[in-house]
Amino acid sequence: MVLKLRPIIQFNNPIVKFNYRYMRHFQVSQTLKMVVPNEVRPIEQYLLQPQRLVQAITDPSRIQQLAPSHFRLRLRPLKFMMLRLEPTVDLQVWTEAEGTLYLKALDCEIRGAQFLRQSFGLELAGTLSPHRRVSETELSGKADLKVQVEVPPPLKLIPEPVLESSGRAFLKGILLTIKYRLERQLVQDYRRWVKANSAQPNSLSSVSLESLAS
User: If you placed Cys at 121, which of 9, 113, 136, 200 could pair as Cys (CB 3.0 to 4.6 Å)?
Assistant: First the structure.
């Protein structure tokens, strides 16, 4: 499973100058492996519906669907040291013909800490791939999260090693929360979807994933 990060850093004001002495980059990764019992309708069909995966990773009341594969997520307020952050992230989620689901952040806005908005940049990319066996399917995934930000005045006196480890732990906690929620919610939602669609014919046996995705 290969993850490619695409820079999406955007600045609201192109003439703003940053003190690059205080610019910091934090990057973390998280893997996922889970086994899903095979059902009447294969999970590859389920993964063709990106809105279900997005609803599995966060509270559905905090999701706005902008287009069939584009979503806006209002994350719950986060606290990092003395800062309180309220991120809003725009995601693109889609499935390729071979069954792999891809996720990519397109934009991010930070509320609650206005002095971070001009220098803040975020990259998020992930994949989730099904590997079918006789009686079960293994889902393997990986996510990379990278943040660039100018250290705000309240944090400039913190020793660099402490700031680095705290920043990485903060981002790791975000990815772990997504992982744990996926592990709890995805299988349950998949079974509900299978039950709701069990009366319909299993189209995967007669058409390819590529035609389903088109």
Answer: 9
Of 200 and 146, the structure prediction assigns the larger pLDDT to 146
Report if residue 119 sits inside a domain.
Answer: yes
Quick count: other Cβ atoms within 10 Å of Cβ 204?
14
Do the domain assignments include residue 9?
A: no
The number of folded domains in the chain is 1
CA angle 69, 71, 72 (to 5 degrees): 165
Q: In 63-135, which ranges are E strands? A: 63-67, 70-74, 78-80, 83-95, 101-111, 121-132
pLDDT tens track for 32-55: 999 999 999 999 999 999 999 899
Residues 75/168/57/72 CA torsion (nearest 10 deg): 40
Q: Which CATH number do you get for residue 61?
A: 3.30.530.20
Residue 204 resides in a domain: no
Q: What is the pTM of this model?
A: 0.77
Return the SS3 of 16. coil
**For 75-126, how does the pLDDT look when each residue is reduced to its tens digit (9 = 90+)?**
888 787 777 778 889 999 999 988 899 999 999 888 766 666 676 788 999 9
Q: How far is Cα 152 from Cα 35, in angstroms, rounded to an integer?
A: 43
